[in-house]
Amino acid sequence: MPASSAIIGLGHSAIARTPIGSARELAAAAARAAIADAGLAPSNIDGLLLNQSALAPPNSLPLQMIDDLDLRDLRLLSIVEGKGASVLQMLQQATLAVMHGMATHVVCVFADAPVGAGKAAGASYQNEAPLTGVPGWEGRYELFGPVGSYALAAQRYLHDVGAAADALAAYPIACRRWAALNPDALLREPLTAEQYRAARFIAEPLRLLDCAYPVNGGAAVVVTAVERARDGRAAPVYVHGLGQGHRTVARLAGDDDAGTAGMLAGRDAYRMAGIGPRQVSLCQVYDAFSICAPIALEDYGLCARGEGLALIAAGATSPGGPLPMNTGGGHLAHAYLQGMTPLAEAVRQARGQGGARQVERNDVILVTGSGGRLEYHAAAVLSPHAVL
Amino acid sequence: MNPMPSPLSDAGPVEAGRADPGGADAGPGDAGRLDINRGAAEPCALADEFLLRIGQRRLCVARCRASAAVLPYAAHRRPDEVSWEDASGRARLASFTVMWQAYRAERAVPYNVAWVELDEGPRLISTVAVADPRALRIGMALRARFDGDGKLVFDPDDEPPPRDGATR
């Protein structure tokens, strides 16, 4: 089937574990880099979609960013908020606009600056976890931040599949193997099972090394219509499938045998692309916590239910394996740019710019986003080919 | 373990008035970074009614008058759309985590946070009163209790009634 849109530009700001500017400044730098990467000028851009971290102060990336980027006469402008699904929701909105002539070149940008001077990055994620649905309730039990919620999901997953308490180690170990091949990754040293077990628990069974590596930084893409895909300087990356799926608190109790709402997102994305999960050559999934990876493999039909972690442990998703996953090192070892980490790596792999980590088969790339407490999901199918 | 007298049966009638959320809203989170889309943060009549009863040491569930279904606590409804009833206090441990990171200085770690499924259906966050978190098992039977501070906690229930469909 023919593609629906094309990504013709990819850009990053500087990325660091120290303060290097506001989220707004980093977003502007990333957007400018993406526009230049596409071989375009700000005057060519008529659409701007903004995604700030859901945990950052409101209006961290305001609509006034029009001026930061010297844009004028925009036909599409919006802040998109769907938690970890936001970046792929921007891609969906941009695709719909360019398909129908409501915009020509749309910049989609994410940036965040959670790492402050003299405080742990984790301090930025300490909000009360809304699970019960009663304001103030989780605070009584001192359940703060997303890590505790994902620990509940992880504990249940390990119980349901009969895995050992430290079985999640396989995933961060695989991420480091990819990161070792990625000069831009922030945690490139190999990780052994012993080192994993020596890492401190944050919320059992999740250890520090099961959690995303927070950074200050931003990334952006430029989306255009398929007919214009060759206007750019770089090889276009075609968008073939898009989907969303949302359901309130799922998977924390394990009774969702059918999986999370990621299944809905995947079903739509595959159908739109005219493919099935068997055609997926590699995947870039949203993995803010290690438990997200096996759940995504299962929800997106890349393995049978309950087999995701075993697949990772067997090396299937590692360098040289049959189903490469998170080939830059993902959120755990590359950098936590939320939904942009998987999307940007997918673009690099589709372009053949993966360097030492470039996979051989890049025909069909699944990208996922998920957020909240595994409630909000979006998926995309990308390819270097205009027709699948 | 000694069978617990029901902590839920000796509470008086619910009186009109606002629930006291116990000041628990004030988490130690970084005030500069607030979740702009936290679903639980909006005031809700149903949540207020739930907290009102909790303040009176009653664990209740809300039933939708239209569908007769027991509602999750996260549901938003007008007060006249639901009726309240005392929960049995019986529950199962759906999942748990042992927190090793203290989010306020005076908090001793580790402590456990439990994801509890009431026999009536709703799920809520709580804690299981066990000295050693290694005693926690997913699926274990629990019984609700209010501790000395009026906080809802759960004890392991050594003599749970058979669940629906279970053989005696």
Topology readout:
The complex is a heterodimer of chains A (388) and B (168).
Chain A (H helix, E strand, L loop, with lengths): L4 E8 L10 H15 L9 E6 L12 H4 L7 E4 L6 H14 L5 E8 L24 H4 L4 H17 L8 H10 L13 H6 L2 E4 L1 E2 L9 E8 L12 E10 L15 H12 L8 E3 L7 H8 L8 H6 L16 H4 L6 H12 L13 E7 L4 E8 L5
Parallel strand pairs in A: 2-3, 2-4, 9-10
Antiparallel strand pairs in A: 1-7, 1-8, 4-7, 5-6, 8-11, 10-11
Chain B lengths: L44 H11 L4 E5 L17 E5 L3 E10 L11 E8 L4 E4 L14 E6 L5 E5 L12
Antiparallel strand pairs in B: 1-2, 3-4, 3-6, 4-5, 6-7
Main features:
heterodimer; A: 388 residues; alpha/beta; two-stranded antiparallel ribbon; 29% helix; 18% strand; B: 168 residues; mainly beta; 5-stranded antiparallel beta sheet; 7% helix
Structural write-up:
The complex is a heterodimer of chains A (388) and B (168). Helices cover 29% and strands 18% of the residues of chain A. Chain A has 12 helices and 11 strands. The model of chain A has no long low-confidence stretch (mean pLDDT 94). By secondary structure, chain B is mainly beta. In chain B, 7% of the residues lie in helices and 26% in strands. Chain B has one helix at 45-55, and strands at 60-64, 82-86, 90-99, 111-118, 123-126, 141-146, 152-156. Chain B has a 5-stranded antiparallel sheet, with no helix packed on it. At the A-B interface, helix 4, helix 5 and strand 5 of A face helix 1, strand 3, strand 4 and strand 5 of B.
